[in-house]
Design goal:
Layout: E1 2-3, E2 18-31, E3 40-42, E4 44-48, E5 51-52, E6 59-62, E7 81-86, E8 95-99, E9 105-107, H1 113-121, E10 125-128, E11 136-138, H2 150-153, E12 165-167, E13 179-183, H3 184-194, E14 209-212, E15 229-232, E16 236-245, H4 262-271, E17 274-283, E18 285-288, E19 292-298
Parallel strand pairs: 13-14
Antiparallel strand pairs: 1-16, 2-3, 2-14, 2-19, 4-5, 4-18, 6-10, 7-8, 8-9, 11-12, 13-17, 15-16, 15-19, 16-17
Length: about 300
């Protein structure tokens, strides 16, 4: 995933009147304690200015390149599952448990955690929970967009001029935005555009907030949110939304979902490669599954 911005138009006219509209409810809240590994759902979570509490708190650093390791380049990361044995709080980082592909358990912070993960991945990595100001996730130029031509995803890039990394949000292991939101209606719309032969599942896109907006929208729902805010939970306000440009990550195998390049082809063909939106946290607080989600801003 990475951010794709759209140009806006301003005028000297009076701003449009504010409006409010219920767009759905929180269907699922997802958290991924280690970047690019499988995470899980929670019934409620605290959202801070930095995002969902405990999300992408850890990441693997490639000891050879110094860059953050991503499933874009190392798909085997999606064979690990991570959860919290002790929940994080605003004062404490909690305790992260990593289940390996063989079912063994590794605890983040234990002395041999990096060594054990390195052995499984057959590359030297270090498990870290402190992000630098200028983090980059390494990519493979030849595979990052699967079999979709680079120019179709980013018109100003060529295979030769595109960077060999994705820039991460400063001082974090997050991809551009603090939170990633996905509407159920958009997933259903993509399923129709693809033709119904692929297992298109919200898990492929790793949302933080998966919002039930109904299943028959006939459009990419998040387009309506650009330039406006969403409110949910205990006065949580999310805004500054930007369409999310997808990559090979949406096609990779995980759990029972097989590898399927047709998914990214459908996103590229139907919506210029974008699905869901990154957003900023304007106002934090507690969010629960079932909370209403209200769109606010100029109508």
């Amino acid at each position: 995933m990475m951010r794709q911005t759209h140009a806006g138009v301003t005028s000297d006219l009076d701003p449009a009147p504010e409006s409010k509209r219920l767009v759905g409810t929180i269907a699922e809240l997802w958290r991924y304690p280690v970047k690019s590994m499988l995470g899980g759902t929670v019934s409620e979570t605290t959202v801070t200015e930095s995002g969902v509490l405990g999300d992408r708190a850890w990441a693997l650093r490639d000891q050879r390149t110094g860059r953050i390791v991503s499933a874009k380049r190392v798909p085997d990361l999606l064979r690990f599952r991570v959860t919290y044995d002790v929940e994080p709080t605003l004062e404490s980082a909690g305790l992260v448990r990593i289940e390996t592909p063989d079912g063994d358990m590794i605890y983040a912070g234990q002395d041999n955690a990096s060594e054990r993960i390195s052995g499984i991945l057959c590359r030297q990595v270090r498990l870290e929970n402190f992000a630098r100001p200028d983090e980059k996730a390494g990519i493979d130029r030849d595979t990052v967009f699967s079999d979709v031509p680079v120019s179709q995803m980013k018109p100003h890039w060529t295979p030769e001029t595109m960077p060999d990394y994705f820039q991460l949000k400063s001082g974090t292991f997050l991809e551009i935005g603090a939170v990633f939101l996905l509407a159920s209606g958009s997933v259903e719309h993509l399923r129709g555009l693809q033709g119904g032969t692929a297992l298109i599942d919200r898990r492929r896109f790793r949302p933080n907030l998966y919002i039930d907006t109904g299943l028959t929208s006939g459009r990419f729902v998040e387009d309506d949110w650009l330039g406006r805010n969403l409110t949910t939970g205990d006065s949580v306000v999310l805004g500054e939304f930007a369409p999310t440009l997808w990559c090979v990550g949406s096609t990779l195998a995980q759990e029972e979902l097989p590898r399927d390049p047709s998914i990214l082809r459908a996103i590229a063909r139907g919506h210029q490669g974008c699905l869901g939106v990154y957003g900023s946290v304007v106002s934090g607080g507690l969010v629960r599954v079932g909370d209403p989600v209200v769109l606010t801003g100029p109508s």
